Amino acid sequence: VTRALEGISHIALVVALPTLIAQLSAERHRPYAMTLWGSYFGVTFALVAWIGAPLARAHGPALLFQIHAVVMVILAAALARVLPKGLIPRKNSPLPDLKDLVAAHPRIYASPRIAAPALGWFFYTLTFVALLTVLPPYLPETTRGTLTFWMPLAGILVSLTLGAQLLRRMPAVSIVLIGLALASLGLVFMWLAPSAFAAPILVFGALGLVQGASFTAIPQLNPDPADQALANGALAQMGNVGTTCGTPLLAALLAQAGIGGFLLFAIALYSCGFLLHLLLAGRRRRQLA
After folding, report:
1. Closest CA to 194 of 270, 124, 262, 269
2. Is residue 45 within 8 Å of residue 136, measured between CB atoms?
3. Who's near 18: CB < 8 A, 6+ residues apart?
4. Closest C-alpha among 36, 44, 13 to residue 212
5. pLDDT tens, residue by residue, 75-121
6. CA distances (Å), origin 255, targets 127, 189, 247, 278
7. Rounded alpha-carbon distances, angstroms, from residue 93 to 23, 28, 37, 225
């Protein structure tokens, strides 16, 4: 029951917050703001590994949840105070019922604008958690600890530096494509040279481009805040499906096909995400024509 309640709050946050960030950011700052938001995944992994896991081992997991709850209450109070009033116009329309919610999904996933960031994000999340959790035992023993620390940080650093600069000059979807292509090259490098230190860093650095650009693509492709909220909701859905299915799927594949099969399958997933983005971009061009 508590997990379900937490899931509802998570969905509310990941739909509302990026929509508000996109509305409140000046256009010249939006790529930086959305990139910063998009880094929360990697930042969380780094913080939990650095602070949360030792705290839970020393005092039990309950303390970690309690600290998290207190921080969230403080942040909620701060946001309630500083957010502009009337930012979201009040409407008298009733909340959608289950039938309306189900009916909205065909519209969301049939739209090459609303669905594109989420569908690309699905292939990213299928592998991100799995790579962080399943891959470390197969890294070289001499560099395993260093790589495990730096892999998520590489994604954050690339997202907030190179990714933010590229977003000022290129469409977000193009940067997602570059990130998926570079991550695939990094996985090929890992397959051919398993002891190479740079290969896992390249993979996660490239995935950092996918992180920030996927969130930035939402306001770029959907100027209407209502469509942005739908796109953020779809991205949250696909993210949850990807993180839920990815680790057991790739762990089972690893047990059957070894590290080579694991890496090849991850390359296939990134290739599918790349091709799907190209197909949706073609649909958007045809709609404009």
Report:
1. 262
2. no
3. 34, 37, 215, 218, 228, 232
4. 36
5. 999 999 998 887 666 566 666 777 877 888 998 999 999 999 999 99
6. 16, 21, 12, 33
7. 22, 34, 30, 16
Q: Which two tokens stand for residue 214?
A: 């996927």
Helix (H, G, I), strand (E, B) or coil at 14: helix
Q: Give residue-wise pLDDT tens across range 198-243.
A: 999 999 999 999 988 998 899 999 999 889 889 988 998 898 899 8
**CA torsion sign, 283 to 285 to 287 to 289?**
negative
In what helix (H) or strand (E) does residue 160 lie, and over which residues does it extend?
Answer: none
State both tokens at 250.
Answer: 């790739």
> Rounded to an integer, what distance in angstroms lies between the CA atom of residue 117 and that of residue 229?
12
> Using CB atoms within 10 A of its CB, is residue 38 exposed (0-12), middle (13-18) or buried (19+)?
buried
Amino acid identity, position 71 = V
* Residue type, position 23, single letter: Q
Largest pairwise CA distance in the chain: 62
The amino acid at residue 70 is: V
Tens of pLDDT, residue by residue over 121-151, are: 999 999 988 888 888 888 888 888 788 878 8
